[in-house]
Design goal:
Helices cover 49% and strands 11% of the residues. It is an alpha/beta fold.
Amino acid sequence: MAGETDIADETRARKVRKLLQVQPGSLDLTKIDPASTPGLPTGRPDNAKAWSKSEVIRLGAQIGTHHARLYAAAATGAARWRVLLVLQAMDCGGKDGTVKSVVGAMDPLGVRITAFGPPTPDELARHFLWRIHAALPPVGFFGVFNRSHYEDVLAVRVRKLVPKSVWSRRYDEINGFEKVQADDGMTIVKVMLHISKQEQAERLMARLDDPAKRWKFSPGDIEDRERWDAYQAAYTDALNRCSTRQAPWYVVPADRKWYRNWAVANILLAHLAEFKADYPPADFDVEAQREALKANGR
């Protein structure tokens, strides 16, 4: 049973989720301040980073418990639940940091993380959703997509890798694909980590300054900065056209890493708490097994 603190956390998490959810057709990404902090409670300590870290750990424990119940129920055949977190962002948007800080609270045995890079020649020869379908989490698992099928209406569109007549059809294909998965028991949570061009520049420079991070830098990152406005337009269209009842989009202002982690933790908690899952009861006589174990010696 959830305690009073858990119930209060879940109530707040639902409010944060509602604040950040994209209403189809009404989003203007340019009007969302990447440094803003929607839903942040008043009365927190002055040290926001330390506060957020402790809060994410605390909320992470609840997320981990919900996930464990979900995994156990599915493992025993009591349910077909599964969850997919889709993370999209411009380069340096914080996808890896979000996974480490928020998803790290879950049992890794029940988590599958897929980072999608440029498609291979074999993948290019198939439908664009083929590799996505192959990476979907099984029943009981929590899946994470670090980039996703949305690259086919983002990077593909901005870089003009296929004609408009091709990528413009993909919004409806994506919506149909996600509806099929949702109807089959998958909860889809899609989060766009929204950073500013200035913040991205600072993070890219930090990669160049740190030898341990240079491997994450690509000259192509500079080229994509020249397409910044085109990417913002592509994101706006994708979020407006593909935020649906069964697979909503959330825009999380991500210039402040501490807020980003706190917000995503709340979004996940709000979704996982709705399962109201519990550990399945034993399908055997527990007391009889206790006695059998005692009789077997210690």
